[in-house]
Amino acid sequence: MIDKRVDSVTQAVADIFDGATVMVGGFGEAGSPIELIHALIDLGAKDLTVVNNNTGSGHVGLAALIENGQVAKMICSFPRTANSTVFPDLYHRGDIELELVPQGTLAERIRAGGAGIPAFYTATSVGTPLAEGKEVRNFDGRDYVMEWGLKADFALVKCARADRYGNLVYNKTARNFGPVMATAANTTIVQTGAQVEIGEIDPEIIVTPGIFVDRIVTIANPAHESRLVNEGRTYP
Amino acid sequence: MSAIALAATIGWDRDDMARRAALDIPDGAYVNLGIGIPEKVAQYVPEGREVIYHTENGLLGMGAAVEPGEEDPELINAGKKQVSAIPGAAYFHHADSFAMIRGGHIDICVLGAMQVSQGGDLANWSTGSADAIPAVGGAMDLVAGVKTIYIITQHCTKTGEPKLVKSCSFPLTGKAVVSRIFTDLAVIDVTPEGFKLVELAPGVELDYVQQRTGCELIAAD
Q1: B73 touches chain A (CB under 8 A)
Q2: What pLDDT, in 10s, does the model give residues B185-219?
Q3: What ipTM is given for this predicted complex?
Q4: From the candidates B39, B47, B56, B199, which is the catalytic residue?
Q5: Which residues of chain A are within 8 Å of residue B171 when distances are taken between CB atoms?
Q6: Catalytic site includes residue B56
Q7: pTM of structure
Q8: Domains of chain B by range and CATH?
């Protein structure tokens, strides 16, 4: 029997190891798997390379993971966010590495990684500092830079509904990086707002087929980062 | 009176600039609006035109700002502001969203600028200063992939430096990508010959704009 459900966030993240590459879903707070991130803080795995569009806000979620000294390197497109001083402070001190990637290139690198494509060419960033040192090739009269596919040891993803096979549907713009990250990690760990029975989700609307998912934990009432930040909350 | 003070008293204000840019968005267009003044363009699209707004975090059919009490932290735009979705909207993941952009499916993108060169190069993501944290977001993807790039910007910086220049001194977002620029003083096209005036703001003379432009401005036809 296939049953990817686990009982707790602690169990869900237990094997994340020091030095792992972890993709964390979310664009800003939308889709941020905040309970899984907090469990990773509790676990204490360090020297992580984290892939996320941003670097979190306030002192909860991703920002708290960074503040806790567990992240050696961020791969992201926009490390500046309102209410975020954690990453800038570490970056200015030289205590965290940054690989800046254009947002669409980041999404496509993850998609390629999950699809078994080692590299691809894109016109994005041609002629800019972000193309420096990269192979450039001309196709049909236009220059393109080569970008590498991106894979991870783990992905932490938030969805709205999941069944025990790991079929997922998301909520509105919280979908963002979740579906591509789920494909690109060796172990994809999902927090879902609700668990449903097999067959309850119409196969026509499943966004992430269960083959891409390894573990599911139910968080029925997930915290919202902006609310925690507004309340001045910190983690741990 | 300084040039800066003068600039504040004549020409278009931020809403006028957005209103003017909106006139150049045709019926049926799929449009991506950048953060800041470009966001205002949606308010001013002339009645009778149906325009679909794309926000690159994963929504086609972005509606107006939400009413207080109806906010959903999982329904946001690329500026991370809570928004609404119109009937007929679609949600999708990031790779699909940037396939729309990179694949040339978005008709028009309206962005802000730090500098635009006469060859249409755009700099709008970094001053290149050593202590700045670089942050690019989707700007490079948008200018590389969207068919038509409009810029809305003040004609000069807060210290009176031209933003329309011979060549950009700031790091580029993209090369030869800008089609048309809407400033507080004028509407200007990027042409193979350089910057060409399309229209002056009411009460603004060509000489006045030329003095505040970093290279030659070709008069309107």
Answers
A1: yes
A2: 999 999 999 999 999 999 999 999 999 999 999 99
A3: 0.96
A4: B56
A5: 128-129
A6: yes
A7: 0.96
A8: 3-47+94-218 (3.40.1080.10)
Delimit the domains of chain A by residue range.
9-117+152-221
Q: Closest chain B residue to A159 measured between Cα atoms?
A: B74
| Owner of token pair 């036809």 | B221
> For the domain bounded by A9-117+152-221, which CATH number is listed?
3.40.1080.10
Chain B neighbors of A82, CB-CB under 8 A: 80
Among B92, B94, B147, the residue to mutate for chain A (most A Cβ within 10 A): B94
